[in-house]
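Recall the central idea of this unit: under ordinary conditions, the amino acid sequence of a chain determines the structure it adopts. In this exercise we apply that idea directly, starting from the sequence alone.
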Amino acid sequence: MEEFLKSINEISLKVIDEDISIKDYIQISISSDNEELKTFNVSSSKEWENYIAAFLKRKEAKVAFGGYLETRDIYKRSSYFQTSNLEDRNIHLGIDLWCKKGTKVLAVLDGVIHSFKNNKNHGDYGPTIILKHELNEKVFYSLYGHLSKESIENIKIGKKVRRQEMIGFLGDNSINGDYAPHLHFQLILDIKNNKGDYPGVSAVNDLEFYKKNCPNPNLLLKLPYEV
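Accordingly, the structure predicted from this sequence is:
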């Protein structure tokens, strides 16, 4: 499936404002290894917003991206990310794109609206849309989390969307799970019975399953990662 996803497009597919050039994207780490994250209160969405804004200004960029399979400490602020055996879910399964609230969110490919929901747990996605895609007899899903409330107010399950069509906007910390504004973008192969929600963070013991079921979104986005 990874080879199929990789072959869909040769150029970057955008999931936020098409007017923002890829040249204005910059990679960011918010992993447990990033020493800069020890300089502010990571439990505060406002301080996160200040950090992201300063990072983008310093790098002369408009979008900070990254995070697939990144181990993060930020989830410790919420009991929502503890499993029944108290093992932390702290390994991120999507790519985050950090930018301004109100930024347009785009469908990555042609598809239909599979489901949507406002996931209200502290640290959760907030308003979320999931699209279903069918290409060459293969089916997969894309998830867009941390949207504005308005993004899910006038949409219908089964509605067709076109590649790069606007499907919503980024929300602020009052609605998006209490984060600095960003898009959580994730691919899902088998969604089971989930609707409007799917785990975006894994515990170590479950990681092999989720790595297979949630392939790297950069197979489609083709953002300029540096090793």
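Helices lie at 2-7, 45-59, 207-213, 218-221.
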